Amino acid sequence: MKVTLLVSGLLFLPDSVQSFLSPGVHRAAAMNLPGKTRLTSTSSGAIQPLRRSLQASSSVVKKPASRLMVNLLTATSTFGTSSIIKSLPILGTLVVAGLLAARLPGVIARGWRSYNKEENSVGREYDAWTREKILEHYWGEHIHLGYYTEEDQKAGYLKKNFIGAKYDFIDRMMAFAKLDGQTFKPAKVLDVGCGIGGTTRYIAKKLGTTSQVSGITLSQEQVRRAKELAEEQDVTNAEFQVMDALHMSYPDNSFDLVWACESGEHMPDKKAYVEEMVRVLKPGGTLVIACWCQRDAKAFPLSRLEQKRVDFMCTEWSHPYFISIQDFERLALDTGVMENVRTEDWAKFTLPSWRHSVWVGVFDPFFWMLRPHLWVKILRDAFTLNVFHNAFKDGLMGYGMIYAQKKK
């Protein structure tokens, strides 16, 4: 039976990587991807003899590059040249990932981007991601998770547009904030941790020029890019500044809506984070937060292994620490000026984003493969995305949504 090079690419990967990829591979195999060769899969029983044959051919070759060449030539004679050429992008992705994963098993499991306030580690990392353009290429203007309904997930999350899922998330968060542009149309909005300004501009467009939307971030590069995109899109009612969310220069009672999507994770003082957003919020105004949260350790203490997993998620992506959804609720109430506080956990609706983030790079590999100096970093990020996926799936982490209004 004829199979595509996707199967032969899997032969190069260590078992641990194959185990990680296999669920998505079989989902991808059932899809007709635009502009791509239809992927086909075989049962594991059909793959094993083929794998043993190719590995036997390459066992005498010691250098990885030479061994891969033997495997590639053997696969070509087995499957036919046309299948090899048509599926070459996916082969390259799998081969590069397999080689890097095989060489770095010990290193990759240790976080290397710990939070450091003095060095502005958060701003530094987002500066780098913005300059590299990889995040924007795959994620678009929105550096946050997407929203997948139960119907989306039943149909197969890979069938949903990855960037479209992020817009769906914003729409859902706007509904959570009761931001419909009619009964609630704030004149002044603050986006805390705005990234390259995707949500800031989106809200500005939705509300129209009678509203002013401000975005703040610690990254100079993000502000530069946000301004570029605002000019390109002719969004005149959005502005961007480099500003510390814990020490904002805005006067008290400045904004009708304070919006914070996936910025609280990076805050070294969650109490000060909430209090500062409440300070700049007008009486009667709305605060809405979306944040990765850990399980409530007061009610369900973390085991040593769970704490180790949380520590890795912190030290790899410059997070000082996580708190629970319940902690956020308490912090809002403890200000003494917030009411109508409600929370939800959107973990099940955002869960597919983690692995979908990896698969968009597999289906469209050329952008990152042409940047070999970033391969190790990209592999680390793919590994970390899967760590987060497992943590959210296991209930170790939750996706906190917090809504509150400031008393009049």
Characterise this structure.
- This protein has 408 residues and is of the alpha/beta class.
- It contains 20 helices and seven strands.
- The chain has helices spanning 5-11, 15-29, 44-58, 64-79, 81-86, 88-103, 105-108, 121-132, 134-139, 150-155, 162-176, 198-207, 220-232, 270-280, 304-316, 325-334, 347-350, 352-363, 366-369, 375-394, and strands spanning 188-192, 212-217, 238-242, 255-261, 281-294, 338-345, 397-406.
- Strands 3-2-1-4-5-7-6 form a seven-stranded mixed sheet, with helices on both faces.
- Strand 4 (255-261), helix 14 and strand 5 form a beta-alpha-beta unit.
- It is globular and about 50 Å long.
- One of its GO terms (biological process) is methylation.
Largest sheet: 7 strands, mixed
Number of domains: 2
Question: Going across the major beta sheet, what is the strand order?
Answer: 3-2-1-4-5-7-6
Strand content: 5-15%
CATH architecture of the largest domain: 3-Layer(aba) Sandwich
CATH fold category name of the largest domain: Rossmann fold
The portion of residues assigned to helices is: 40-55%
Contiguous low-pLDDT stretches (5 residues minimum) are: 1-81, 83-87
Report the oligomer.
single chain
What is the class of the largest domain in the CATH system? Alpha Beta
> Given the C-alpha coordinates, what overall shape results?
globular
Order of helices and strands: HHHHHHHHHHHEHEHEEHEHHEHHHHE
Number of helices: 20
Helix/strand class: alpha/beta
Question: What is the CATH superfamily classification of the largest domain?
Answer: Vaccinia Virus protein VP39
The counted number of beta strands is: 7
Report the radius of gyration as a whole number of Å: 23 Å
Distance N terminus to C terminus?
71 Å
Mean pLDDT equals 81
GO biological process, one term: methylation
Family: Belongs to the class I-like SAM-binding methyltransferase superfamily. gTMT family.
Signal peptide: 1-19
Pfam families: Methyltransf_11
